[in-house]
Amino acid sequence: MPKLAGVAKAYDDLGVAQKVHGVVGLFVFLTLLLLVMAIQSVRLQTTYREDLAVSANAALNIERVNGLIFAIVMESRGIYMSADSIKAKPFGDALLVRNAELGKVLEQWQDGLQQDDAARFAPFKKRIEQFISFRRELVRRAVEVSPAAGREWGDNDVNRALRTALNDDLAALAGIYGERARTVAELGNVTRLAAWYLALLGFGTLVVAGLTVVVMQQCALKPLSEIARATDAIVAGRTELVIPYIERRDELGQLAAAVQKFHGAAVRNEHLEKLSIDTAKQRDEAIQQRDALNDKYYATKWQLSAAINSLPQGMMMLDAAANILVMNEQYRTIYALPPELKPGSSLLDILQYRFKKGQLRSNVSEYLAAIMARIGKRQPSSDEIQLIDGRTIHILERPMDGGGWVATHDDVTEQRRSQRILERTERFLVTVIENIPEAIVAKDARNLRYVFVNTAAEKMFGLPRGEIIGKNARELFPPATAELIEQRDRQLMMQEQQLDPIVDTVESPIVGRRTISVRRLQVGAADGESQLLVSLIEDLTHQARTAA
User: Fold this and answer.
1) Alpha-carbon 69 to chain mean position
2) What is the 3-class SS of 507-532, one letter each residue?
3) What is the model's pTM?
4) What's the Rg (C-alpha) of the chain?
C-alpha cells in the first residue's frame, strides 16, 4: 500500500503534458508491436492457406484417380461380359472417355506438384500411362476383333499386378499428403496462437487508447469545460456549488471540478435518452425481422410441401431414429396408408400396418432390421420389391446430413410388364429372322458396313458373321462384285424402297459365282433420316443351273 500511495503521488505531481506524452508513447509502442505481429500472422496464414490448398488438391486428385480407375475396370468388365463387338462398343467408348479423363487429372496433378513430390510421382505417372495404354488396346481388340480377345488381353496377372502397384502408389501418396496435412494442422495451431497474441496486443492497444482518452479528458479537456460551466453557474448566482479538484497541484489546479456533478448528471441524462431511443428502434427492427422470417418460413414450408406432393414417386424422409419426418401423398397412395399414419409416426408403425394388410412377404422385425442396417452404413441403395398383390415397387434410398434417410418409392409394375412383353417380342423376331430361308443383311447407310447378318446369310457368304460384321463389300468380295453391290446400295439411297427383286450374278471368294435375287429397303430413324439398308437375298444359283 505505501508503494501504491507513492506511485499515485508521483502521478499527481506530473504535469498535464508529461502525462499525455507518456501515455501516447506507450500507445505508439504497442501499435508498432501490433503491426509486427499482424505482419507475422499474415505470413503464417498465407503459408497455411497455400499448404492447405496443396494438400486438399492432392487428396482430391487421389480420390479422382481412384474413382476413374474403378470406373475403367467396371467398363472393362462390361466388355468382358458382352456377347459380341457391337454390344461391347458402348462400354469401350465409355472406357475411352474415362481414359481421357484420367490423363487430364494426371496432367493437372503434375502441374500443381511440389518439387519434393516428384520422385514419388514419376513411377506413379509411368504406371498410369501404362494403365491407359493397356486399356486403350483392350478396347481396340474388343471392338475390332471380339470381346473374348479383349478379355484375353485385359483379364490377366499382368493387368492385376499393374492395378496393385497403382493402389500401392496411391496409398504411398496418400501417406505423404497425410503427413503434410498434419504439418499444416501444426502450422494452423501456430497461426491460432499468433492470432491470440495479436488479439491480446489489440486488447492492450485498446486499453492504452482508452487510457489516453481518459488522461486527456481528466487532465485537460474535462477540467477546462467544467471550469467554464462552473464560471457560468457562479455568474448566474449558484454560489452553493462546491469547486472540486482544489487539492490538485498542476496548472489546472482547483478550477477543474467546479461543476463536476452538474456535468455528470447531464451526461447521464443524455446517455439514458439515447439508450431509450436506441432500445425502441432495436425493438421495432427485431419485430419486423421476426415477422419477415415468419412469412419466409411459412412460404418456404408451403413451397416444399407442394413440391414434395407433386413428385410422381412416393417419398418418405426418416430421422436417425427411423421416425417419419416427411411423407408425401403419392407414398400414402402406393401403400393405402390411413390418415393416422403421418409425419411423427415411426417406420415400425407403417411396416406393421403394411404387414397387416398383406403387403410384406417377410417378417416386420427382419424387414426393419435390414432398413436400419442400410441406414447405419449410410450408403445409397436401389432395390425392387414384389408386393403380394403383384405390384413391383422400385425403392431408391439416400442418406441425409445429420443421420437422416430419404427414400423414394416408384410403382413400376406397368413398366416391368411392358418390358417383359418387349423382350418376348424381340426373342420372337430374332427366332423368325434366324430361321427364314432368305438371307437378310443390314448395313449402316453412312459407311456401308455390315451391321447384321442372319444364319442364311452366313451360309450364302460362306463366312461366320463375326468375320462379316464391321466390314464393307470391298473387304469381302472381288472388286467387280463389290462395285456392283455398292452401286445397288447407292440406287436404294436415291429412292425410298426397292421391293421389286433385282437378279444379279456375284462372285464370292468362298462359295464362288452365285445368282441372287435381292429386294432392298431403307429403315429410317424417327427424324426420317436413313440409318440402315436392309437386303433380303434369295439364292437362285441352283435354279439358274437347272434352267441352263
Assistant:
1) 18
2) EECCCEEEEEEEEEEEEECCCCCEEE
3) 0.35
4) 44
